[in-house]
Amino acid sequence: MKIQIPATSANLGAGFDALGLALTFYNYVEMEECDEVDISSADGVEVPTDENNLIYVSAKDLYAVCGRKLSGLRLRQHSNIPMARGLGSSSACIIAGLVGANKMLGDPLTKDDLVDLAAQIEGHPDNTAPALLGGIVTAVFDGRKVHWVKQEVYTKLRFAAIIPDFELRTEDARACLPKEVSHKDAVFNLSRAALFSASLLTGKFENLRTAVHDKLHQPYRMELIPDCREVFDIAYTHGAYAAYISGAGPTVMAIVDEENKYFAGKMKFSLDNAGLGGWQVHEFGIDNVGTQIL
Ligand code: HSE
User: Fold this and answer.
1) Which among 174, 218, 220, 224 is the best mutation to test ligand 1's pocket, defined by most ligand atoms within 8 Å of the CB?
2) In what order do the strands lie in the sheet with 242-245?
3) Structural domains in the chain, sorted by start
4) What is the DSSP code string of 94-106?
5) How many whole angstroms separate alpha carbon 91 and alpha carbon 9?
6) Closest atom of ligand 1 to CA, residue 11
7) 250 C-beta closer than 6 A to ligand 1
8) Does residue 208 line the site of ligand 1, with CB under 6 A?
9) Which of 20, 27, 44, 172 could form a disulfide bond with 10, CB atoms 3.0-4.6 angstroms apart?
């Protein structure tokens, strides 16, 4: 079986650990039952080839939940989504493992079960849920269960991922966050997170720039992402509706109108001129389907 899993962009500014959307950019995993662990990369991207492989671990978890033992798996990975860049590469592995294993067992678990299990493995649902479901997903993880809504988005917006040539591990990007925040900052964020989805879904795009501001994670993570502020400024100079740190970073996501046709080219030109040639720009749409077995 061959599984297609979309990249995801989480947080969407103020919706820390709660909002995420799926992008038209995919990893592929070929998966077969087998008596040994046989894992390979189809494209030269280095992946763990032992039992620590996240796709394998997730498949094994699903088997355990169903009271079965996974004795082996043949996996061949096509890893287009760059790792540790805030585009949901680990969630894509978790979802591939769960969806593939569920199929191999004859689909004993429902979509809701898979959303819950994925969040339990990842610790938060904002990448895993849209990777499975597609669209924009609003999700609350109560530690056991995810309460979620998926909304399909048909929009003229494009998402330009501005991806640097360095990695930032989610673990490090979470370790830099404060343990407590003020009531004022909490209100600042919750109002903007709500404004984001309402504005995206109703086409009130002029609100997005305000909606992506937050006080819970981006100000702290910017310190870990050299030139991040300058990348934001350049994106706004070229007419982006909004720019935010995608997931835990370091990718910066710019939301642009499809009529802003040359955004990616102009962005890249300006980045190069500013001495920021290590940043690449790739434009995607929203994937409304989620993970599919092809
Ligand atoms: N909500 C998560 C974070 C996404 O910002 O840390 C990254 O996995």
Assistant:
1) 174
2) 242-245, 252-257, 157-163, 280-284
3) 2-152 (3.30.230.10), 157-284 (3.30.70.890)
4) HHHHHHHHHHHTT
5) 11
6) 1
7) no
8) no
9) 20
Q: Which of 170, 220, 244 to mutate to test the pocket of ligand 1 (most atoms within 8 A of CB)?
A: 170
294 residues of the chain, pLDDT tens digit each: 999 999 999 999 999 999 999 999 999 999 999 999 999 999 999 999 999 999 999 999 999 999 999 999 999 999 999 999 999 999 999 999 999 999 999 999 999 999 999 999 999 999 999 999 999 999 999 988 999 999 999 889 999 999 999 999 999 999 999 999 999 999 999 999 999 999 999 999 999 999 999 999 999 999 999 999 999 999 999 999 999 999 999 999 999 999 999 999 999 999 999 999 999 999 999 999 999 999
Q: Is 10 in the pocket of ligand 1 (CB under 6 A)?
A: yes
Evaluate: CB of 247 within 6 angstroms of ligand 1. yes
The model scores a pTM over 0.90? yes
Locate 211 and state its tokens: 């909606």
Residue 170 CB–ligand 1 contact under 6 Å: yes
Please enumerate in sequence order all residues whose Cβ is within 8 A of that of 230, keeping only pairs 6 or more positions apart, or say none.
Answer: 274, 276
Query: Ligand 1: distance of its center to the CA of 240 in Å?
Result: 23
Our CA dihedral for 20, 195, 144, 82, rounded to 10 degrees, sits at 20
Gap from CA of 67 to ligand 1 centroid (Å): 31
